[in-house]
Structures are given as C-alpha cells and as structure tokens.
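Listing S7. Sequence submitted for prediction.
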Amino acid sequence: MLEEINTTNAPGAVGPLSQAIKVGNLLYVSGQLPIDPATGEFNSEDAIAQADQCLKNLVAIAAAAGTTLANTVKTTVLLTDLGQFAEINKVYAGFFAKPYPARACYEVKALPKGAKVEIEAVIALG
C-alpha cells in the first residue's frame, strides 16, 4: 500500500507528484529543490547554499515519515555544473555519516525553476 508523506516543513511539490511515498519499509523522496519552505523561494543563487537547502528539505520530509537521514539507502544528486561537485560534496558530507548511502551524481543541462542542485533519496523506515 502506498502512503503519501507531506509536510509544510519542506516545499510543496512542483507539479503532479508527492513530496514522498512510503511503501513497505522504504521512503521514496522526490527530488528536492533549494526552496525555503518559509518563503517559497530559492534560498540562494549559490549552488553550495542550494545543496544545503535541498538536504534540509530531505531532513524535514524524513522526519515527517518518522525516520532520519541516518537511514538513507541511496541518493541521487543532480547538478547543472559538475565543476562544483567538490564543494557541494563537503556540504553533503555534513548531513551523512558512515555507512554513507549509495549515491549517483549527474550533471544536467537544466533543473526545474532554474535550480542549480536537486537531490532525491530513498530512506529506510523503522
């Protein structure tokens, strides 16, 4: 059975999608843009600050589902400039500890709303 997870502590979905879907013991979190839920706007034009906001949004959605980023199984990071990977990786490392989640990272031509970073996750529950 699919259960939609929604919280006002993270930005609402941009389009016909859910913030996250809980199925079995896994939480599938949609790609998070660097939108500050308090303002509905990007937190910054800087990619490093954007990555931080994306991860904060993941934290809020995980909490709404009763879990934490410590239980993250896999992430996917989308960047419009892979040249900023090292700096973004430093921010990313501040949100995770060993064992680190599996991860894929891709450079893409563009992201929704002109974002420079988007991060999605699969997180274990319980």
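Caption to Listing S7: primary sequence and predicted structure tokens for the chain studied. The longest helix spans residues 47-64. DSSP finds two helices and eight strands in the chain.
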